[in-house]
Design brief:
single chain; about 240 residues; alpha/beta; Rossmann fold; Transcription Regulator spoIIAA; 2 domains; 6-stranded parallel β-sheet; two-stranded parallel sheet; 9 helices; about 15% strand
């Protein structure tokens, strides 16, 4: 962990120490399997900061909706859930609500949040999950809304993860897509293709197996393009071997 991340974590923990109860966080993911995989990282980050995870939004001091822009049904569900949070926010003025994931990359969504859901204080685009601690700290320090939109690189390999299952896990091998099909929004909200290094993938998979995981799903928007951007010549079949 970098010195800056350590400093931010300690600053947030100092804020949480002023709470009269155990600070809790609720993370809910919508849409594709990669979004649910990202949601596990959001849970890991929040737990590492000192929050206790809860399945009940009414108990939470931080609520994150990790939302998909590819599936319209997922977007509609998120908007409905945001509306249901208004009375919870009124009862708990200290509550921080955030919208994360590729849905946050859409300009019209961000405009809707400003107009109809001003209580949403954090907006993190796909690939900006490691900026969550800095975003929380900014809001605790008085910033009205903190936005981070970034998907040029790869997520930090050292980010903590809280797995939703002990026997099944998803492991991203790449992110983004270069195809720009006329009917698909993925390249605009997930960015261009970026591949994880094979040794990082292998290390994660081995760790899961050692932890008792029986089923591992390798994820990517376009796994057939795995290897693009890496120095070594490797493709998806070679990765599997």
């Amino acid at each position: 962990m970098s010195d800056e991340r350590t400093k931010i974590r300690e600053q947030i923990r100092s804020v949480l120490n002023t709470f009269s109860h155990t600070p809790r966080a609720h993370v809910q993911s919508f849409g594709c399997q990669l979004n649910f995989c990202d949601g596990e990282k959001y849970k890991g980050i929040l737990q590492d900061l000192g929050y206790e995870l809860t399945e009940q939004p009414e108990e939470a001091d931080v609520i994150l909706f990790n939302a998909c822009a590819v599936r319209a049904h997922a977007e509609s569900r998120v908007i409905g859930r945001l509306g249901a949070l208004k009375p919870i926010k009124e009862r708990n003025p200290r509550l921080i609500v955030g919208l994360c994931g590729c849905m946050a990359e859409e300009e019209e969504v961000r405009a809707l949040l400003k107009k109809s859901y001003p209580f949403v204080k954090i907006v993190l685009g796909a690939g900006a999950m490691e900026r969550l601690p800095a975003s929380l700290l900014a809001v605790y320090q008085g910033e009205k809304r903190h936005e981070e939109l970034a998907f040029a690189g790869l997520p930090d390999e050292s980010l903590p993860t809280v797995r939703d299952s002990g026997f099944q896990a998803s492991v991203p091998v790449m992110y983004g897509c270069n195809n720009f099909c006329t009917y698909c929004i993925v390249p605009y909200v997930r960015g261009r293709e970026r591949s994880r290094k094979p040794e990082a993938i292998e290390q994660e998979v081995r760790g899961l197996i050692e932890g008792g995981c029986k089923e591992i799903l390798l994820l990517g928007q376009n796994v057939n393009s795995y290897g693009r951007g890496l120095d070594e010549k490797i493709n998806f079949p070679a990765l599997l071997r």
